[in-house]
Amino acid sequence: MAPLDLRAEPGPMTRVKLWRLAEDPEACFVAFTASSLALVRVPDRRSEATCMIEDAVLLPNSIMVTPRGPTVTCRMAAAWALFERHSLQRAARQHLGTEIVGVRHLGTYSCRNVNNVATRRRSEHATANAIDIATLVLADGREVRLARDWGNGKPEGDFLRAVRDGACRWFRVVLSPDYNAAHADHFHFDMGPWRTCR
Ligand SMILES: [Zn+2]
């Protein structure tokens, strides 16, 4: 099977290949090389058993990601590359007539449980397998903020809904303000074993 191509028009096998990266981390690095996309690897860190960093990279950005270069698993970076090119920019052109030039995130790696609750399982953030997105910056300088623009009945709100739906094509779990109050101001995307899109 040919390596996953992160830049080609997605076909029926694209997501199959993307989601298989969880069982074959090396195939992820091959995908970036085959797609001629540069990647900076992050050394593995196994000091804490449930908060390991393995097969991680600095999130490569064609658009500005702030704070810069967060650590994510390679398969998160691969999903992001597909999301950015085939969903995010398309939604921006369709609903706002412009491009996205920047994204502000609230973090990727954090050694903690889901919702910071002691009795819950480890969050995908504990292995840098997730990212939280709060703000999208448009080419004309305007900002679209989850906290302000979600469900506002305007093009910005329609755009955010399209971003959420588009993200569900690539990420395993997508949580929006529709999910719960803890996500009122950001999207959570992760590449863990569960499948949720809300
Ligand atoms: Zn999150």
From TrEMBL:
This is Extensin family protein. Residues 27-198 form the Extensin-like C-terminal domain. The lineage of its organism: Bacteria, Pseudomonadati, Pseudomonadota, Alphaproteobacteria, Acetobacterales. It comes from Paeniroseomonas aquatica.
